[in-house]
Amino acid sequence: MKGIELAERFFEEYGKPMLENEFPDVLPKLACGITGSGSECFGFDDEISTDHDFEAGFCIFLPDEDTVDRRTAFLLERAYAKLPGEFMGVKKGILSPVGGARRGVIRISEFFTEKTGSADGVLTLHEWLTLPEQSLAEATNGKIFFDNYGELTRIRENLSYFPGDIRLKKLAGNLLLMAQSGQYNYKRLIARGEFAGAQLAVFEFVKHAISAIFLLNCVYQPYYKWSFKALRALPKLSIEAEIMEYLITTDNSRELAEEKYYAIEGVAADIIDELVKQSLTKAGCGDLEKHAYSVNDGIDDPNIRNLHVLSAV
After folding, report:
1. Is residue 53 over pLDDT 70?
2. How far apart are CA 211 and CA 103, in angstroms?
3. CATH at residue 239
4. Which of 178, 255, 304, 313 sits a CA distance of 20 to 30 A from 221?
5. Are residues 198 and 63 in the same domain?
């Protein structure tokens, strides 16, 4: 059973009755669900996931102390701690007195401060440009079972994806680095016999191609170890996962190098086709560098457009 389903069933069987029976007055100010760190919050968990940080449990989200006071929060923590220590063969996590738990009673402002640096999810231009994408993914993933107060949902909606100009800035930077590493440097390194350097160029190309594909899908890219799994589930360009896996798992002997270069160009061509479909570029060529600057030219806000093209990557 997936972690999200496990959490929801645990909540329905034990958490919801506890809140309804013991905290009817505070229930209108609460939200419950499972979100944040952990493969289960993305639906990526499997049997290997259970070896660490995998637990039966859910989150009870509270607004700040002026709405739900400290004593009520303490009583909720105590009631949560009294829930069964094991559910469907999975143990409930032990709450730490110094915080840091992934489940249990959590202040909304503390959750979003941890993930984004902003208690209310309002980000500055600099924060949108520099905040790790995986953190935004963790702030908006999982499943919220209910949100009576509405604050958690409102913040998650505000953070649901990059503003348009930020998306374009990140896309432009990734396209440029794809051009430099894959379309330009790979062949030159092969010609010099720098096969290790050539593989680094391949890694750079694939890394930034994956980022570009997530941006074209308007989906946050998760932590790197889940990138390929998440990539294969995207509606657009998921087919590139197989090609890029081939690129990074094969050597760079002269026999393979030409084939790999054509594969790189194939990925680039498919991404350019998608740029054209989404009307994000006016460059009519196969050169990713020209498309990078064309995408950057499409940014409305001059303060963002005039930043260095790589400022968001």
Report:
1. no
2. 30
3. 1.20.120
4. 304
5. no
Range of the structural domain that residue 44 is part of = 3-158
- The total number of structural domains that make up the chain: 2
User: How distant is the alpha carbon of residue 18 from its chain centre?
Assistant: 32
Indicate whether 52 pLDDT > 70: no
Rounded to whole angstroms, how far apart are CA atoms 101 and 94?
8
Residues 150 and 17 grouped into a single domain: yes
Q: Could you tell me which residues come within 8 angstroms of residue 154 by beta carbon, excluding any fewer than 6 positions away?
A: none
CB 313 within 8 A of CB 174: yes
Return d(Cα 157, Cα 210) in angstroms, integer: 24
For residues 154, 159, 162, 165, the Cα torsion angle rounded to the nearest 10 degrees is 50
CB 44 within 8 A of CB 226: yes
Token pair 């600057």 is found at 293
278 in the same domain as 135? no
Nearest to 146 by CA among 16, 39, 4, 26: 16
**Owner of token pair 């479909």:** 277
Distance between CA 210 and CA 269 in Å, rounded? 14
pLDDT digits (tens, 9 = 90+) for 132-153: 999 999 999 999 999 999 999 9
Q: What whole-number percentage of the chain has pLDDT above 70? A: 93
Residue 310, domain member (yes or no): no
**Strand partners for 92:** 56
DSSP element (H, E) containing 197: helix 195-217
Of the candidates 140, 158, 176, which is a domain's last residue? 158
Clarify whether residues 299 and 172 are in a common domain.
yes
Q: Indicate whether 147 and 18 sit together in one domain.
A: yes
Task: Give the dihedral sign, CA 79/82/87/90.
Answer: positive
The pLDDT of residue 102: 83
**Distance, CA of 280 to CA of 283 (rounded, Å):** 9
